[in-house]
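Task: sequence design from structure.
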């Protein structure tokens, strides 16, 4: 019973990781095909549409950089 459950969890995890890798590869390929101007425009649009997420990301990044620099 436990072996069956562990096997099922392992298969689900493997499938999830494979799907994530495939999606990441597709996204990376799409990004490689765009010019820097297009990427900049897309980023600007995303930031305008998601100001809260942008601010949260900036705060988290600043916090992590601060923690990293304080340890040195």
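Answer:
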């Amino acid at each position: 019973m436990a072996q069956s459950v562990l096997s099922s969890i392992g298969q689900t995890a493997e499938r999830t990781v494979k799907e994530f890798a495939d999606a990441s590869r597709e996204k990376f390929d799409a990004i490689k095909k765009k010019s820097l101007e297009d990427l900049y425009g897309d980023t600007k649009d995303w930031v305008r549409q998601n100001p809260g997420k942008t601010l949260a990301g900036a705060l988290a990044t600043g916090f992590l950089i601060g923690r990293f620099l304080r340890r040195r």
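Residues 59 and 65 are 10 Å apart (CA to CA).
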